[in-house]
């Protein structure tokens, strides 16, 4: 499936969700080794820089062979182990200078609340092979640069590989959209020309006085058809999506100490501060005042 849009909705959404990837492991393994990052409650990726490995999942399917250049992404923290040998074989203990398996691991974090429609739209596991296609070629080029940065460890290498990992995740989403005939969830809405118009309008002006009727007109659909189509693809109602979007934007605006809660409420389209406070606490678990204090403490 291909995707084209005059507005870059994906960039807007990923920035709004505060995408921040972090590489936490770059090592060479040999002999009887295994690696398991399950239980972190974070999206994870593993990049095979050299050699080969086997991916074992908590399912009945056989172990998945991986070779140099292959990338594995686990958006939902699925149980897994990465090892040098399949379960049915006995590993060798020898390890020469150039015979080990180089593995880079990282987290894909989002700082904007627990709900994340981008991750929710991805499958349990994504395996991107180092094949000679345009989409995988870009991922391969990024992977090579990340591995070189981690190997050379020049000043600033950690920041460099982390930001390259951000780009790697964007490329993985593109790869998934390109190869998935029927994307699901928010990504399906992203690829839908009509819903894309409505989503772009909401993200462009979240504080606007939107209604289902007005969003339906923006999408060029009837109210009923739009509402049903939106829920079917996105997984929540248009107004529910808008409310969550407003709360993420409100969280960003509250980082400005000179901006009052009442002002933020007004900017987000709430007629009363009380209604805004109630909606904010529903999403974040604390009121806007407490959230602002938490932000100051973290800073």
From TrEMBL:
Residues 196-294 form the HTH araC/xylS-type domain. Pfam families: Cupin_6, HTH_18. It comes from the Bacteria. InterPro entries: AraC_lig (IPR032783), AraC_XylS_family_regulators (IPR050204), Homeodomain-like_sf (IPR009057), HTH_AraC (IPR018060). PROSITE patterns: HTH_ARAC_FAMILY_2. Keywords: DNA-binding, Transcription, Transcription regulation. One of its GO terms (molecular function) is DNA-binding transcription factor activity. PANTHER family: ARAC FAMILY TRANSCRIPTIONAL REGULATOR (PTHR46796:SF7), HTH-TYPE TRANSCRIPTIONAL ACTIVATOR RHAS-RELATED (PTHR46796). This is AraC family transcriptional regulator.
């Amino acid at each position: 499936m291909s995707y084209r849009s005059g507005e870059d909705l994906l960039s807007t959404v990923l920035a709004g969700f505060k995408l921040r990837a972090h590489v936490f492991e770059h090592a060479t393994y040999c002999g009887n080794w295994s690696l398991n990052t399950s239980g972190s409650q974070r999206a994870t990726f593993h990049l095979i820089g050299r050699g080969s490995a086997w991916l074992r999942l908590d399912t009945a399917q056989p172990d998945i062979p991986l070779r140099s250049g292959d990338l594995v992404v686990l958006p939902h923290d699925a149980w897994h182990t990465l090892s040098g040998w399949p379960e049915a074989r006995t590993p060798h203990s020898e390890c020469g200078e150039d015979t080990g398996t180089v593995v880079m691991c990282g987290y894909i974090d989002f700082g904007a609340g627990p709900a994340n429609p981008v991750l929710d739209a991805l499958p349990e596991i994504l395996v991107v092979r180092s094949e000679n296609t345009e989409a995988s070629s870009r991922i391969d080029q990024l992977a090579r640069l990340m591995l070189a940065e981690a190997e050379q460890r020049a000043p600033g290498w950690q920041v460099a590989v982390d930001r390259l990992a951000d780009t790697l995740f964007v490329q993985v989403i593109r790869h998934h959209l390109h190869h998935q005939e029927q994307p699901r969830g928010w990504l399906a809405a992203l690829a839908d020309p009509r819903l894309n118009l409505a989503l772009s309008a909401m993200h462009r002006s979240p504080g606007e006085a939107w209604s289902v009727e007005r969003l339906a007109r923006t999408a060029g659909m009837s109210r009923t058809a739009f509402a049903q189509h939106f829920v079917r693809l996105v997984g929540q109602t248009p107004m529910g999506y808008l409310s969550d979007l407003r709360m993420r934007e409100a969280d960003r605006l509250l980082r400005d100490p000179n901006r009052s809660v009442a002002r933020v409420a007004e900017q987000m389209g709430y007629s009363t501060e009380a209604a805004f406070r109630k909606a904010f606490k529903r999403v974040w678990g604390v009121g806007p005042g407490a959230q602002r204090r938490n932000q100051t403490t973290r800073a």
